[in-house]
Amino acid sequence: MYLKTTSNNHSEFYTIMDESSISKSKKTNRRMQIQKSDSDLFFRFNQSVRLTSDIGLALIVLTTTPEDEASYQEFILTNSIDLVPGVYFNTLAITEECSIFMEPLGKDSPKTVPTAKKIAIRKYEPKLMIEKLHTLFYQIKMAPFESLSIPGDYYELIIVDQGELIHHIDDAEYIAKKNDCFIYQPGQVRKQSITKDGVTSYLSIIFDAKGLTPTATNQIIHLGSQNTALIERIIELSNITTNGRYTDDEVLLNLKLILLKIVQGEANHTEKPTTSMRENYESELFQAMVDFLDAHVEDQNQVSDLVEHFSLSRSTIQSLFNKYANTTPKNYINTIRLNRSKQMIQETQMTLSQIADYLGYGSIQYFSRAFSKEFGLSPSSYAKSIV
C-alpha cells in the first residue's frame, strides 16, 4: 500500500507546507493534468519545487540516486510539499482524472534522466479468490467409520474439532487431530476413516477457488486459536436463520483469511483456550431438539422421532441430553408431555382420556400413574383443585 506524503513529518525528499502556504500557492502556480500511469524518466530541478494536490490521486516517485531502483520511494501526494533541491521525481496518475499544481521556486528548467526501471502504478489484484461457497456442514461420527466420495470439481476443507480423522490419498494416510485441517483438490477422491475409539467431530467446507497453491493441499496443517476463532464465526453465521445483508460476505471473508494464512504458512499460532466448534454445535443441536419436542410433543414424543428427524444415533442423543439436561431423552420427553397435560387440563374442555390419547399415552391408567408420580397427585385431583 502507498503511504501519503503527510504520513512523514520528516523526509529527506521534501517538507510539508502549512495551510496558508497551500492557499497562496494555488493562486500563483500552474495546474498540470497527469494522464500517464507509468514512465521511464525522472525530473530534477536545481532549486526547490512546490507540488500541491488538486483533483484525484497522484503518485509521486522520489529518489536521490536514479540509477539505484532500490532507492525509489513512492507516496500519494496529499496537500502541499516543497521538494528538496536536486531530488529526482515524477508524478503518475492513480485515478482516471488527475491534476496537481506545480511551481518551480527558481528560474531553472528541469533536467530529465532515465529511470533504472520503468516506474508504474501498482495494480492491486487478488491472488487468491473464492469464487463460490457451495456448502458447509458439521458431523459427529464414531468408530468404525469409513467414507468414500467420488471426485468432485471443487475444493474441500476439512477441520477436525475432536478426535482423529484419517485421510487416504493414494497409498498414503494422513492422521488429522484436534484443530488440524486438510484440503482436497478438485478432482481428487475424498476418502476418510475413523479407527480410534471415541467420538470424532469435524467441519467440512466445500468451495470453488482460484489461486490456491498446490502446497496448501494434501497435507495436515494445524490451525491456531486465531484461525479456529474464524471457524467458530463461520459456523455461527451459517446457523443464523435470517440471512443478514452481509452474512455471506463475512463467511467468505473469514474463509479467505484462513486460506491465506494456510498458503502463506502462517496457520500455526500459539494455542489459547477457546470454545470448541463441537461445543457450539452440540449446544445448538440440543436446543433444536428441545424446540422440536416442544412444538410437536403431541405426535413426536419418542426417542425414535428424534433419531429420524435429526439423523443422529440413539447414543449421540442420549449423550446430549445427559450433558445439557442431566437426564435421559425419554425422561425429558415425559416431563414435557406431563407439563403439557397440566396446561391442557387448565385451558381446554378435553376429558382426561382425550388428553391422554392426544399426548400419546396408551391408556388413561398409564397417563394417571405417570402424572401422579411426577406431581404427587392424580390428574383428576389436579383438575378438581383448579375448579
UniProtKB/TrEMBL annotation:
Keywords: DNA-binding, Transcription, Transcription regulation. It comes from the Bacteria. Residues 287-385 form the HTH araC/xylS-type domain. The keyword Aminoacyl-tRNA synthetase does not apply. This is Helix-turn-helix transcriptional regulator.
